[in-house]
Amino acid sequence: MDVDITRSRVGGRARAPPSKSYTHRAILAAGYSDGAVVADPLVSADTRATMRAVEAFGGTVDRTDGDLDVTGFAGRPGVPDDVIDCANSGTTTRLVTACAALGDGLTVLTGDDSLRSRPQGPLLDAVEQLGGRAESTRGNGQAPLVVGGPIAGGTVSIPGDVSSQYITALLMAGAVTDDGIDIDLETELKSAPYVDITLEVLDAFGIEAAETTTGYRVPGGQRYERVDPYPVPGDFSSMSYLLAAGAVAGAEGGVVVEGAYPSAQGDSAIVDVLERMGADISWDREAGEITVRRSDLTGVEVDVGDTPDLLPTIAVLGAVADGDTRIVNCEHVRLKETDRVRAMATELETLGAAVTEEEDTLTIHGGESDLRGATVAGHDDHRIVMSLAIAGLVAEGTTAVAGADHVDVSFPGFFDVLYDLGAELDEHER
Ligand SMILES: O=C(O)C1=C[C@@H](OP(=O)(O)O)[C@@H](O)[C@H](O)C1
Ligand SMILES: C=C(OP(=O)(O)O)C(=O)O
């Protein structure tokens, strides 16, 4: 499926989908428990992969009245009957790898082309340090993976600058080991707020875990409690596209995004980024509403060390803003569904923006008048597709984005929401 977006204004109210990160963790935490109800979950391609994994380990996941009723495997994952297909989801792959290391047998994990190109080596190494078996079938640190245990816990040393999901995975699994897991970080931790989300979810399920002077520690011998219901907050990464749409193409009255309650999500930093760029934006935290109106934006410097998923959105904002937008500390953003630094540089150039790409910095030399509609590649990556769609709202003429169906990974219905806000768009088969 492709989508054609014609320059248009957007306005009105929209609700962002529930958080992907919280949903993954809540489903798996429910799996680690006897059972739990995940209320208002994100049901998307990625979270369905985590549901499949919980079922593969012996749990069940039923959708009732929009909630997920999960029966868990009570800390003892069974040996799956079949390979676990993690599809496009890095979070599923990492979180399930550590869970598989608790099993008394082997689990095989694989996924799509993109997933099978992403780095798993440091997590496999961590599982081996704990006495488990963890192999990449091709010996290149990428899926397909073969993982088994049972591990009893211990101390691991792991880099923090590849993926915070390794830390999340070890904390979630470590709670039900005999000895717990001490994680020593070999480098500074990137994407750190995602570990804060993990600690928040673990706490809600009655699991103790904490930051230490050298990393993180989770004591062993714990039991995940039954939580009913566990409510999932709105997703700020998904909101970033709606907020950006309001800032660059808002009609009179602007765009109001609902479901924006404060949580541990680092990506709520998008509000601050827009403010610094000069957007007319206000966040009513009590009401959970963010209102943004179209304004002239100015380039700023943004460090995305904590917020990698905001890079595509900020890159588009930078292309519309006057002056340079420097996105720094972004090397780890190259390790996502695609190399998002390269992908955004390439596609924004196709739309007429001037861009300088360095290993850990992306500079966009902005100016709205530069953007002209063109056919751009979505790189089979939901965030590239959604951010380019926002660029299409301001580019002269029509912008064709390939691979529009990939939004199902994190924001099913994204184009319906954009259309309802007034965007002129047409989804069609290639
Ligand atoms: O734990 C999570 O829910 C996530 C962590 C981040 O990945 P890294 O920790 O690999 O940077 C983020 O990019 C991803 O979309 C979701
Ligand atoms: C990188 C992402 O997710 P994951 O790592 O779970 O594939 C994302 O949603 O942008």
UniProtKB/TrEMBL annotation:
<comment type="subunit">
    <text>Monomer.</text>
</comment>
<dbReference type="InterPro" id="IPR036968">
    <property type="entry name" value="Enolpyruvate_Tfrase_sf"/>
</dbReference>
<comment type="pathway">
    <text>Metabolic intermediate biosynthesis; chorismate biosynthesis; chorismate from D-erythrose 4-phosphate and phosphoenolpyruvate: step 6/7.</text>
</comment>
<feature type="binding site">
    <location>
        <position position="340"/>
    </location>
    <ligand>
        <name>phosphoenolpyruvate</name>
    </ligand>
</feature>
<dbReference type="InterPro" id="IPR001986">
    <property type="entry name" value="Enolpyruvate_Tfrase_dom"/>
</dbReference>
<dbReference type="GO" id="GO:0009073">
    <property type="term" value="P:aromatic amino acid family biosynthetic process"/>
</dbReference>
<keyword id="KW-0057">Aromatic amino acid biosynthesis</keyword>
<feature type="binding site">
    <location>
        <position position="21"/>
    </location>
    <ligand>
        <name>3-phosphoshikimate</name>
    </ligand>
</feature>
<dbReference type="InterPro" id="IPR013792">
    <property type="entry name" value="RNA3'P_cycl/enolpyr_Trfase_a/b"/>
</dbReference>
<feature type="binding site">
    <location>
        <position position="90"/>
    </location>
    <ligand>
        <name>phosphoenolpyruvate</name>
    </ligand>
</feature>
<dbReference type="Pfam" id="PF00275">
    <property type="entry name" value="EPSP_synthase"/>
</dbReference>
<feature type="binding site">
    <location>
        <position position="20"/>
    </location>
    <ligand>
        <name>3-phosphoshikimate</name>
    </ligand>
</feature>
<feature type="domain" description="Enolpyruvate transferase">
    <location>
        <begin position="7"/>
        <end position="418"/>
    </location>
</feature>
<comment type="function">
    <text>Catalyzes the transfer of the enolpyruvyl moiety of phosphoenolpyruvate (PEP) to the 5-hydroxyl of shikimate-3-phosphate (S3P) to produce enolpyruvyl shikimate-3-phosphate and inorganic phosphate.</text>
</comment>
<feature type="binding site">
    <location>
        <position position="191"/>
    </location>
    <ligand>
        <name>3-phosphoshikimate</name>
    </ligand>
</feature>
<keyword id="KW-0963">Cytoplasm</keyword>
<feature type="binding site">
    <location>
        <position position="309"/>
    </location>
    <ligand>
        <name>3-phosphoshikimate</name>
    </ligand>
</feature>
<feature type="binding site">
    <location>
        <position position="163"/>
    </location>
    <ligand>
        <name>3-phosphoshikimate</name>
    </ligand>
</feature>
<dbReference type="GO" id="GO:0008652">
    <property type="term" value="P:amino acid biosynthetic process"/>
</dbReference>
<dbReference type="GO" id="GO:0005737">
    <property type="term" value="C:cytoplasm"/>
</dbReference>
<feature type="binding site">
    <location>
        <position position="118"/>
    </location>
    <ligand>
        <name>phosphoenolpyruvate</name>
    </ligand>
</feature>
<protein>
    <recommendedName>
        <fullName>3-phosphoshikimate 1-carboxyvinyltransferase</fullName>
        <ecNumber>2.5.1.19</ecNumber>
    </recommendedName>
</protein>
<keyword id="KW-0028">Amino-acid biosynthesis</keyword>
<feature type="binding site">
    <location>
        <position position="25"/>
    </location>
    <ligand>
        <name>3-phosphoshikimate</name>
    </ligand>
</feature>
<comment type="similarity">
    <text>Belongs to the EPSP synthase family.</text>
</comment>
<dbReference type="GO" id="GO:0003866">
    <property type="term" value="F:3-phosphoshikimate 1-carboxyvinyltransferase activity"/>
</dbReference>
<dbReference type="InterPro" id="IPR006264">
    <property type="entry name" value="EPSP_synthase"/>
</dbReference>
<dbReference type="GO" id="GO:0009423">
    <property type="term" value="P:chorismate biosynthetic process"/>
</dbReference>
<keyword id="KW-0808">Transferase</keyword>
<feature type="binding site">
    <location>
        <position position="336"/>
    </location>
    <ligand>
        <name>3-phosphoshikimate</name>
    </ligand>
</feature>
<feature type="binding site">
    <location>
        <position position="383"/>
    </location>
    <ligand>
        <name>phosphoenolpyruvate</name>
    </ligand>
</feature>
<dbReference type="InterPro" id="IPR023193">
    <property type="entry name" value="EPSP_synthase_CS"/>
</dbReference>
<feature type="active site" description="Proton acceptor">
    <location>
        <position position="309"/>
    </location>
</feature>
<feature type="binding site">
    <location>
        <position position="165"/>
    </location>
    <ligand>
        <name>3-phosphoshikimate</name>
    </ligand>
</feature>
<feature type="binding site">
    <location>
        <position position="164"/>
    </location>
    <ligand>
        <name>3-phosphoshikimate</name>
    </ligand>
</feature>
<feature type="binding site">
    <location>
        <position position="165"/>
    </location>
    <ligand>
        <name>phosphoenolpyruvate</name>
    </ligand>
</feature>
<feature type="binding site">
    <location>
        <position position="20"/>
    </location>
    <ligand>
        <name>phosphoenolpyruvate</name>
    </ligand>
</feature>
